[in-house]
Write a structure and sequence with these properties.
Two copies of one chain form a homodimer. Chain A is an alpha/beta fold. In chain A, 28% of the residues lie in helices and 23% in strands. Chain A has an eight-stranded parallel beta barrel, surrounded by four helices. In chain A, a hairpin with a 3-residue loop joins strand 28 and strand 29. Chains A, B: This is Protein arginine N-methyltransferase.
């Protein structure tokens, strides 16, 4: 693996000034680059435009005979109304014009508007302002817009106006067809701050719409998921649009871990950090708290890491000639005391951008990628159809990828060694009359388990008679070659589907003189080794395949490795996967009923055992609740005898109904599936995130499975998600069916379709 | 209209015996017909089969080493399991065989099974029993099956097992592809009764699954919507299958009106009435209570009226030779005392089927169809695309249908008469210099409003100068004819789109000698009459059309008839409409985003002002809460002047956000839309079911409008449905957007897509 794979990608860092007044020239962009910034924000319009809109509003209010209050008193335009039209932008209204620096600029729309205003006049003017700004930004060729999120009303709550905000954003997406719209949101609503920001238009609003201000006194509790809730309405209204993303403002005090996790699952593409979010280290340099550092690290490992925008941390050096008030060299080196000491003892340098330097240093400090991260680069949250190994012959490269796993085959070797040791210690009879334990590797692929079985035999000193069965004729060529080159011809190779194999052949002495073919008999197998598991344990038909060879296993002593396996489930929020499934379903109607193999990354577990008790400090990360759906154990002695001309597979049907308590509200987009398997006794493999560290850390062979829902379900606070799942078979194929219900107390509040993957079923 | 239209259709009545033992021969069917029954039920299997299944179960339990209880203790088959297989049906297991009487038989599947059992063994045997019965019924060609509903568990509650029940029914629908499956349900769960029925298999169940029995002691309150809830899960799991319908058991004590309303909205195709549901009148004859009669009447007015099955009310006369224990002549005539007296004084007759006679009599007593019922025969719950009158020329028959309305034109005449009277009384100047009030009928069609305006003028003695504008050249031919034949040439006809009409022409004296065309000027209009409203008021672009002629109306005195109109909304449960929209969307992706004109019938209003106080006796019918979305008033003097080369239509944009409290749980499939209009002062038309009786009873011109939801939303008890709706325009067309949210307390529990009819928008 190359070193480049290990390198953590560079942070993309920009600079934002709330009151940027100068036009941004290509020279300024050049200066910013020289200071190590990657980009700059740019207000789309000027204060001149703000003033002009206020005067349009004032003069309209002056001409009104009487307020056009609804008869019903409800919000909205329900009667004949006429709003003033803001005249088109003129040259004083904007400094922006198309130039070569456009790709390094993020446009910022005006924050003095309020699309959610209960006053329809203010809401309509705000809509006009935003749409004018979007249209002009699109004309100039800006690729990125930062749009202040919906304003709070009703004493710090998101109001009904969010629906209207969302509808305007939908129009904006159509007006700027090449623009990525970043909705600028706080992690958690902060009432005090919001009240400060409000009201550039509000003071001019008519008093019948100013009910909000009066209600402010009750000072409500902050709703930790209130901002997320508003975002959910916006992106839902806009149908999970791919150009609608989040710009997240890092607050000084981070919210509880469950809120951080939620944002981690959303498309956060910008991260804004105010000067006030930095703290000072002992030397007075700006640094971020451990909590902030770890949140940034986590977000930076997303498939598309967010860009970072430093807000109001001082001017671009050389642009206005002013010095940074922060004083001496910044915090960049604050956490490397030895280096910092070296620098501070050499006070010749003055760092004009200490916040930026700190962020660049933070980038350097990112831990290198783990094995699974390196392995999964580019695969995070990428949907793959599961393998059909029974009907499709795998290619060599696919085997090679699997064989790279640093854990899986090691664990298999341990399991075989232990089984052989036990066999010998218990003095069990062997199926081969010569006393060797008969080991069969079925579905051997290119043979990694053969090598391990031979090693286990050598290591334990227990002799084996090894049989290797593979149906893929291409892989079989390699097996023959390996037998010559690696296995010293010790291996008995059988080119066959394991289900039609008749067992190890035992030649008899010729019994007549006419030279007839030597008759053969078949012995049983003592230890049957297979690696047929899929991401959801049984989804690649391990049960059906092993049932097909179980009759060859010794009826009392026979051992199957793996001995058993279980499928595990948990409901998740996965907005990116949902959007991808929806876009696939345009061309493939079966897309939302297909289970996908996917390296789950930007997801949030809805059901957790989190201690919502925030008194623990620091609050612990929520632990997902992942439950067992069902189990298969081998050898299965309960297989019905073949009858009625066909072997029934009904004994491999399973169903389950699992209840998942969900402490915090969210949206359920689907189910994450994992597996655990007991290879032999205490040798286990697990992809279940709760147990994988303990059972088989660093295993990379399997990504989880994802069962989507056609339509996301809202999950309220303190509710239950109930999953009903079936493993079905019609004796020709196997498929899954799944259905999700949401309950609050005893009341059903949501229910999904019964989804079925029968069209994408796994053929037997 | 023919008398046949007035006739109430015949009831279809059958007979059911719980313990029917004889095979049903064609002779028995013949006897039943002679007794006036239309059909009979028939058990698919015999008690022999029951006994055989019990012995399969007993011998399996005897062979079990130990109970196969899940490790997790949760319900379902989660581990390797093997269930006994019931051997195929033999001749003693069923009396049913294919014969000519099949079309008069309703098969009944066994009630001693329990598909919901928490014991997976019982659940699996029950599944096998049902599937064997369905397969045999399908083989015999039965068209109808009555399937006992899911059994109660957990102390009289529907259990998690309903999901499994539903899954088996889904298989049954595939196994019997020509069978209608009637799920036999109570209106409300009755705990006592259910406990009696349970347990044919249960006593054999293993004790670890008999937790239910122990929990029974807590004697829970009956959940009035519990049975409906179970039905909702079943039909939802089966994707609103058209062959999955309800057989409803009429209980002795009817549930609250809201529960009755709910069932009225579901596909109730069978109504079963037990002997015990009948009461005895003074003469001892079996009759039904007033409440039962009225519920039956209501259900019988559905598009597909249910069949009625009388259960255990005595044998078919002549089949077993036994007499009905009821004694004398039945209750058939009980409510016609004069007739009854005549009969009882002549006691020669003995009625062997008094319950049947009563039902036949009830049929005779059904009130004749109302005007709107006659008009709507065949249109109940039938989806129609709204008219596009601006871009499509209507056909004569369409006008004719509208002109048949007994109320609408009468009310227009009253409005015009009152407006003319007021004009004269207030001595307003007229636009015609000769003193006649200038009246214009715009969009006159075949001229019904012209006739009414002329009558109003004659009746009030206020002279009018009448102008008639119509764009449809075909209708214009008829207008010319009417002017000759009916209107005595009094009418000035203008063939034009009203939006391009330049107003009444006033000829000037020739002003030169060269014989140039006489120049004309145009006067204003005093009273502008139009009938441009659609089912949702503004949905056929009345606002846009009238805006286009408003400049012709006298600037101070001009009157528009109608003066204003409002659109009204309410969330509804409409399972049939949902199923129809879903089936249309297979071929037309825009189907679930199209507003439909539909005569709403099998629907239930989710938001009501019902007094849930059941102490009132009898409890009053729930009154739906129908709210005003928005209003248009004419003439609209606020229309912006044409500018930028096109007339902006943005003043006709509307939006609203309405909160609907919902006392009882349900499923929201869409929104019902209505309108009200003020023609002039207190002369109003309404299709709003709450106000139509008072404002314009018996008006038939408009069916309601239905805005579907792509995905139904669950509405819990005591929740709120919040509707956000937009009337949008891009200056070329008009469309609607709608979104529904469901809240419990402050918590969002469901949210729909933002639906948009832009693809089916109404062209301007």
């Amino acid at each position: 693996m190359s070193d480049a794979d290990d390198l953590f990608p560079a942070f993309c860092i920009g600079q934002h000034e709330t009151d940027r007044v100068l036009p941004i020239t290509t020279q300024i962009v050049q200066r910013a680059h020289e200071s190590n910034y990657d980009m700059l924000t740019y207000p789309v319009t000027t204060s001149h435009f703000h003033t002009r809109v206020l005067s349009v509003l004032s003069s309209h209010l002056a001409t009104l005979d009487k307020p056009t209050l609804d008869a019903s008193g409800t919000m909205g335009t329900t009667q004949n109304t006429k709003f003033p039209v803001i005249p088109p932008l003129s040259t004083a209204d904007t400094h922006l014009s198309p130039n070569e620096a456009m790709s390094q600029l993020v446009g910022v729309t005006s924050s003095w508007i309020d699309l959610c205003s209960p006053d329809p006049l203010i809401a309509d003017l705000s809509r006009q302002v935003l749409m004018m700004e979007v249209a002009y930004a699109a004309f100039c060729g800006l690729g990125y817009l930062l749009i202040p999120g919906p304003k709070l009303h009703h004493g710090g709550m998101h109001s009904d106006g969010v629906a209207y905000y969302a509808r305007v954003i939908q129009d904006a997406l159509a007006t700027g067809p090449y623009i990525h719209f970043h909705i600028w949101l706080k992690m958690v609503d902060n009432v005090d701050l919001e009240v400060d920001q409000m009201g550039d238009l509000a003071p001019l609003a008519r008093k019948e719409f100013l009910l909000d201000a009066d209600n402010n006194e009750q000072s409500p509790k902050i709703d930790p998921f209130g901002t997320w809730d508003a975002w959910d309405v916006i992106r839902r209204t806009c149908k999970y649009h791919s150009r609608l993303v989040v710009a997240l403002c890092l607050p000084k005090h981070l919210p509880q871990p469950s809120v951080q996790s939620r944002w981690h699952s959303e498309p956060v593409r910008l991260l804004t950090v105010d000067a006030g979010t930095f703290i000072k280290n002992q030397k007075g340099y700006p640094v971020l708290s451990k909590g902030h550092q770890s949140l940034i690290s986590r977000l930076m490992r997303l498939r598309t890491p967010p860009w970072i925008i430093l807000c109001d941390i001082g001017p671009i050096p050389g642009v206005e000639g002013s010095e940074d008030a922060e004083g001496d060299r910044g915090a960049a080196t604050a956490e490397f005391p030895s280096l910092a000491q070296a620098v501070s003892s050499n006070k010749k340098h003055h760092d004009p951008t200490p916040h930026l330097s700190y962020m660049r240093n933070l980038q350097q400090k990112q831990p290198p990628r783990t094995a699974i991260e390196r392995f999964g680069v580019g695969y995070q949250d990428y949907l793959q159809a599961p393998l059909q190994p029974l009907t499709v012959n795998l290619e060599s490269i696919t085997y090679e990828v699997f064989e790279k796993d640093p854990i899986k085959y090691e664990w298999y070797e341990r399991a075989v060694a232990q089984a052989l040791t036990d066999w010998a210690a218990q003095k069990k009879p062997t199926s081969n009359p010569d006393g060797r334990v008969v080991v069969a590797v079925v579905g051997a692929g290119r043979g990694p388990l053969v090598t391990r079985a031979l090693r286990a035999s050598a290591q334990t000193g227990v002799a084996i008679d090894i049989w290797v069965v593979e149906k893929n004729q291409n892989a079989f060529v390699l097996l023959q070659r390996h037998n010559q080159t690696i296995w010293e011809g010790k291996v008995n190779l059988v080119h066959s589907d394991m289900r039609s194999w008749r067992g190890p052949e035992r030649k008899q002495a010729p019994n007549n003189e006419e030279g007839e073919t030597t008759p053969t008999t078949h012995s049983t197998v003592d230890i049957l080794i297979s690696e047929l598991l899929g991401s959801f344990a049984d989804n690649e038909l391990s049960p059906e395949c092993l049932d097909g060879v179980t009759h060859l296993l010794h009826p009392t002593h026979g051992i199957s490795i793996p001995a058993s396996y279980t499928a595990h489930l948990s409901p998740i929020s996965a907005p990116k996967l949902h959007a991808d499934v929806m876009s696939q379903s345009v061309s493939n109607p079966a897309a939302p009923e297909t289970p996908y193999v996917v390296m789950l990354h930007a997801i949030d577990f809805l059901s957790t055992n989190a201690s919502t008790n925030t008194s623990t400090n620091p609050p612990s990360d929520p632990v997902p609740l992942i439950q067992t759906a069902w189990q298969f154990a081998h050898p299965n002695r309960d297989i019905p005898a073949p009858s009625h001309h066909s072997l029934s597979n009904s004994h491999n049907v399973r169903h389950t109904r699992l209840v998942f308590p969900c402490p915090d509200r969210g949206v359920c987009h689907g189910l994450a599936g994992y597996f655990e398997t007991v290879l032999y006794k205490n040798v286990e493999l697990s992809t279940n995130p709760v147990t994988m560290e303990a059972k088989s850390a660093n295993m990379i062979s399997w990504f989880p499975i994802y069962f989507p829902l056609k339509n996301p379900l809202n999950v309220p606070d303190n509710s239950e998600v109930i999953v009903t799942m079936f493993r079905q078979t019609d004796n020709r194929k196997v498929w899954y069916e799944w259905m999700v219900e949401v309950r609050c107390g005893k009341m059903r509040v949501g229910i999904s379709d019964l989804h079925s993957s029968i069209k994408e079923g796994c053929l037997m």
